[in-house]
Design goal:
5 strands; mainly alpha; single chain
Length: 274
């Protein structure tokens, strides 16, 4: 990790309890948020943030702090700062460090557009992993009777609609960021198979890789088919001595299409039309 940032140390041993890792149950929301944030691409924030008179907090810490706070109803920078002293979950997220409210507020204001996109990424990854709620943010937990559940098999069209819904959720959270809005304790619904951190990290990685692989696989196949059509058209023109009639085949567009489906428990399963 870059030397210009304060180190993120959640493994320093203590007497009671012996380690930060012992402060929270394995299925706690704070652990889940940290695990996802640690695997996001934060290179832009890392490059642009810092450079002041002292070693800054790593963007991963501030991003996880903001997201967990907003997802659990802690919106104001002052209350987020106070929570890093009062709340075990917030202390776990920050590695028992205490960013002041000015640092938190400045970071939020400076990277507001990037934060919105990153918050949506967190929610999309959580949805693909089969999580129904992150704090107060609902991710739609409807199930269907099948070998695999509906929340782990989705068309890209549905995924886009879900992302729009999640973006609205994020915008609402960011809108309330200046308010001191106290809510109930967070709800969380993480499958039992994701309770262990090792399994959770593997599932996050698999979800991200599968989303990217399916899109690239389809594009490469369609690109090869497109090139074959162009070559056939060229061969026919050479054979007949005439220019081929009709427009040239359109090149494929990278990225998933509305009817593409992905599933992480059963690759053969598909959502049935009602």
């Amino acid at each position: 990790m870059s030397g210009k940032f304060q180190p993120i140390n959640r493994d320093t041993p203590y007497l009671l309890p012996p380690s930060l890792q012992d402060w929270l149950p394995q299925k706690h929301l704070a652990r889940f948020v940290v695990d996802i944030v640690d695997q996001l691409d934060l290179s832009e924030l890392v490059t642009r943030y810092g450079g002041g008179g002292k070693q800054p907090y790593h963007p991963a810490v501030l991003l996880a702090l903001l997201f967990y706070g907003y997802a659990t109803g802690v919106f104001s920078s002052r209350k987020l700062e106070q929570a890093t002293h009062d709340s075990v979950a917030f202390r776990f997220i920050t590695g028992d460090a205490h960013p002041d409210h000015d640092t938190i507020a400045t970071f939020r204001k400076r990277f507001l557009p990037e934060l919105e996109g990153l918050f949506v990424q967190i929610l999309v990854v959580a949805k693909v992993m089969g999580v129904f709620k992150l704090g107060k943010v609902s991710l739609d937990g409807t199930k269907i009777k099948a070998n695999a559940s509906k929340h782990k098999a989705m068309s890209w069209g549905y995924a886009k609609k879900l992302e729009e819904q999640l973006r609205r959720e994020v915008q609402e959270l960011l809108r309330r960021a200046e308010q001191a809005d106290t809510e109930d304790e967070p709800e969380i619904d993480i499958p039992d198979e994701l309770a262990r951190r090792e399994d959770r990290l593997a599932a996050i990685k698999k979800a991200k890789e599968e989303i990217e692989r399916r899109a690239q696989e389809r594009f490469e196949a369609e690109q090869a088919e497109h090139e074959a059509k162009l070559q056939q058209r060229k061969d026919n023109e050479a054979k007949t001595g005439k220019k081929a009639r009709g427009p040239k085949p359109k090149p494929p567009v990278a990225g998933p299409r509305d009817k593409d489906q992905i599933n992480f428990t059963d690759d053969e399963s598909r959502i049935m039309l009602s």
